[in-house]
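Structure ticket #2291
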Amino acid sequence: MMREPYEGKIMWEMDYDQAAAYWVLKDKEAVHMDDADLKEKIESFITEHNTCALATATREFVRCTPIEYNYLEGFFYMFSEGGVKFKGLKDNKHVGLAIYDHYDGFANLKSLQVEGIATIVEPFSEEYIRVLEHKKISVENIKKMPSVLNLIKVYPEIYNYLDSDLKEEGFGARQTLFM
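Resolution: structure written out below.
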């Protein structure tokens, strides 16, 4: 059963455009890192973690799935038996990833949001086997599974990195890297 939106009296009108522009405007005033240094920090953060929230969507459907990832050669790889995330991937290849540390207050924020394009790697192709080998998973064991293990590959396009420690280095805590 779907709940109806709150039908109480609206006392104000939300300015979604202003809210959406908040960080864009604030980031214009921030001190930005060199792209090479920022990429190094981002890749270090990625390799320190192994789980993300993968968001997929279509016009009337959104799914955000916690999933283990492998980061190889600049791409995110995620094995999955299936699930409704593929409903979004079927019609919309644009995805979002979020990786984050445990929240411990505003002074200790550290997270990464990634916007990218997802594809499905052909099962048992060279690339598929390379990721299995990286995970130290036997190809023979995967072939014995009752159904194929799907491999999602995400091509990152935009990284939005948040690290409170960057302020101590003289930079804005939020940094964006376009690939």
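Closing remark: The two ends are 42 Å apart (CA to CA).
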